[in-house]
Structure formats: structure tokens, C-alpha cells
Design brief:
Blueprint (H helix, E strand, L loop, with lengths): L1 H28 L11 E4 L2 E2 L2 E2 L3 E5 L8 E6 L3 E10 L2 E7 L8 E5 L3 E5 L3
Antiparallel strand pairs: 1-6, 1-9, 2-3, 4-5, 6-7, 7-8
Length: 120
């Protein structure tokens, strides 16, 4: 009988802690999303432990499409935001490297904007 009393106290606490953890993960997942506007210059990448993650960032051919890629660029690459769109509650940006030959154009999600570069 004693074990059933202990279990009846532990289970609600465990459920509460699990729900709290789920809520924290959901809240923190959007913390690092940095919004940008059309015409802004941005730096590609993700933040982890307050630093830029050294990885390749995939530019997609369409917003939300992960099977077809336009290019894979090193995080830290500066890009120009050409436009943005919301798809199923997530913001996607069409971005371009700006160069004499026109550059590379593709779509990224908001979570891959590391920094918006301030214009002087």
C-alpha cells in the first residue's frame, strides 16, 4: 500500500515536469529566429551557445522544400533578402548573393538568419 501512495505522488510531478520541458523546448525553438525585411542584408547561419554554427546552409528551390536544393553555402555568407512569404505559419525568405554575375538565389527559413546587417 505504501508504494501506491508514493507512485500517486510521483506521477503527477513527472507529468508536470514533462509538460514544462515540452513548453520550454517549444518556446526556445523560436528564440533564435531573427526576422528580416525585404532589402535587408543578412548573415546566413544558426546560433548555438551564442556562436555561429560552422555548417553549410541549404538554399531551396521553393519555400519549405527540402528535397531540391539550389545551393549549399557556408554559414557566415552575406545575402540580400529579395522577398519573404509565410507558409503554414513559418516565414521563408528568398535571398541572393549579390555579385557582378548576379549571384545565387534560393529560399531559407527564418531560423537560418544569424544576423541582420545594419545599413549605414
Amino acid at each position: 500500500m505504501r508504494n501506491s501512495k508514493n507512485i500517486s505522488r510521483i506521477v503527477p510531478r513527472a507529468i508536470f515536469l514533462m509538460l514544462l520541458l515540452i513548453w520550454c523546448v517549444a518556446l526556445c525553438s523560436d528564440v533564435f529566429a531573427i526576422p528580416a525585411d525585404k532589402g535587408d542584408f543578412i548573415v546566413l547561419g544558426r546560433q548555438e551557445n551564442e556562436e555561429l554554427v560552422d555548417e553549410k546552409v541549404t538554399l531551396s528551390v521553393e519555400p519549405g522544400v527540402t528535397t531540391q536544393t539550389q545551393a549549399r553555402l557556408q554559414s557566415g555568407t552575406e545575402m540580400l533578402v529579395l522577398d519573404l512569404i509565410e507558409v503554414e505559419g513559418e516565414i521563408y525568405y528568398i535571398v541572393s548573393t549579390v555579385g557582378r554575375e548576379g549571384g545565387i538565389i534560393g529560399w531559407i527559413s527564418e531560423e537560418y538568419i544569424y544576423e541582420v546587417i545594419q545599413q549605414e
